[in-house]
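Example 3.
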Amino acid sequence: MQEISTSANYIPLLLQIVVAAAFVIFTLVVTHKLTPRINSDRKDENFECGIEAEGNARFPVSVRYFMTAILFVLFDVEVIFFYPYAVNFYELKMEGLLALIMFVGFFLVGFLYIRLKGALEWEK
Amino acid sequence: MSLQMISVILGSLTIASGLMVVLSKHPIRSVIYLVITFFFISAMYILMNAQFLAIVNMIVYAGAIMVLFLFVLMLLNLNKEMEPETTRMSLFTAVIAGGTLFLVMITALRDTFQYGKGYVQVPVQDAGLVEQLGKLLFSKYLVPFEISSILFIAAMVGAVLLAKREKQIID
Amino acid sequence: MDTAMLIEKSALVLLLFLISLGVAAYQTYFERKLAAWIQDRVGPDRAGPFGILQPIADGTKMFLKEDFIPAKADKWLFIIGPGISMFTALITSSVIPWGTNLNLFGRDISLQVADFNIGILFVFGVVSIGVYGIMIGGWASNNKYSLYGAIRASSQMISYELAMGISAITIVMLTGSLSLNDIVQSQHGMNWNIFYQPLAFFIFFITSLAELNRAPFDLPECESELIGGYHTEYSSMKLGLYLFSEYTSMFVSSAIMAVLFFGGYNFPGMDAFSGNTLAILSIAAFALKIFLFIFVIMWIRWTIPRFRFDQLMHLGWKVLIPVAIVNMLITGLVVAWNQGWM
């Protein structure tokens, strides 16, 4: 690392964000203005294989998806914790590695727990 | 453009999107506004050169916790006729809870104006970079760091128990 | 940051943007030709010689087709869904170093839009935001098939993000930096990470396929069960943005795999060149690696059948995450042994 990284390094990113956002907005507006549109009650219905739709798609889904999301949040935070360690891997030497092994140990205990409890099972 | 100008603009954008979270009637739109708010908060972290914190804010809050929020909202029945009616009791409790939070915020803000002239001063230029953070985390704050992993296990246990109970209702 | 630098970066951003769009458009052509070749067909051959103008014809058609919004859909969210997908696909390319410094008009121009301290985490951050595009679009359509496509897509993407993050950690450990520029420079010549971390690469490759929703992980849009998945109700350029974002992401993640494991712009024997010759050769080497990755990803799509959803979750959670963690620990222990810390 030659110099200290500062917030000025992010100005080019801002440029890229502006270009990307401009393109997206431009495309959405143009396609909205340019294309023909014919409306009728029948036509504006949702396409569900041509069968008349029963109710709408605002119904609760399986709790397993919800479970996946909760576990993802927990594991994501743990994974983020590995990064500050990985950057300092060569400086922290053995003490750092031992601390990491301990942390991973707890991580695996949690992982085994959710596995044995069947939180990762999808087939009944 | 001076740094103060940028932080004022960013601050007003953050507050505006934060207000939209509260004011928008549609829960899913609120989530979108909240993601935008996190985006601006990350930009503020970058302005203070706390780069690692900025990206963690993006990954964990905007990328993970908000996805969980969306899942929860999709798990609920969001039909118009299913909306719970606001009773006078819930309105009353909401006002009290909100008022208390507002008081806490006012106190916190007063401290900021007293000590920091309104702006955060970063003592060392590279204090917020990931290298320094990692060194601190694995030396001075090693014990809290390891304890946090036990906290994660507790959270997993909680999640599994919660899902077990939910399942009985749904199946 | 002075004005010359600002102009230089703006030019680079615009160029990169046009290249991303161009590559994404021609990837569709390439994919159709490749599929045709694998299935012993001719493929598109009407627009121009060998059908070379096909992507342009497709793009024009998408702009002119009816922009349909279902009556029951949430209009506002329905419109911004594809926008989010495309936006996130376009900004990831900013952290990739495309070649060695180019010397133009007496200035040393770095071919990387922004070199941050946290480059690789930025990529993961943007990928995690990309989930919203699909999730919001699918939910807003108010179609049961779209909803299932969206929920499958988001649980698949978040599950594979974990294994992806862990497998990239080994590279950060070996390099000691999160900046993609430092990671590329540490693989000078033929000193590529793939020789040290084949397992990490394998995991990263599989998770990339899952993040891209490409076959064999294309469950969110599997046409035999969910019509079109999350984009069933989309038409016109809104559908175009979804498809475009998929191809742009494919281009960018091929580039990221090349950067992390195959030395980015480095090529064997690069010390024999210098200056602008080296810059141009390095860009060519990088482009070749990206092209090969794109080819392999497409080849897999037309060869391997789709996973079932429980198999997908099983692979992501019970196989890839533990293997990635063990790989990380083994890397740490082996380095510790080599350095004499033990």
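Chain B touches chain C through 22 residues (CB under 8 Å). Chain B has a mean pLDDT of 80.
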